Automatic annotation (TrEMBL):
Keywords of the record: Cell membrane, Membrane, Transmembrane, Transmembrane helix, Transport
UniProt entry tagged with the keyword 4Fe-4S: no
Species this chain originates from: Pelovirga terrestris
Family according to the record: Belongs to the CPA3 antiporters (TC 2.A.63) subunit F family.
Protein name per UniProt: Multiple resistance and pH regulation protein F
GO CC annotations on file: plasma membrane
InterPro entries: MrpF/PhaF-like (IPR007208)
Superkingdom in the source lineage: Bacteria
Subcellular location: Cell membrane
Membrane topology: Multi-pass membrane protein
Amino acid sequence: MTGLYIGLALILLLTIAVGLVRVLRGPTATDRMLAAQLFGTTAVAILLLLGQAGNSTAIWDVALIFALLAAVAAVTFVRRRNIDTDSHQEGNRGHH
């Protein structure tokens, strides 16, 4: 069963490689952020699989921390996009 967990973790690592292409190519900041969210989610899944394979609860704790950080990153991105959009719209109002 350990081999299965490690095999699945390697497959998930390939999805991170594919996501890296999306980060590099874009075309928009939202595409890049979604790819970064893919990294966070996949990293959590990989850590959970490796923790299960090695029967290590410490790795599960690290996966939990990564999940929390991914949620904070998503909220930060959305708030920043809203601030940038609001300031852009205010700038356009002043020119009309």
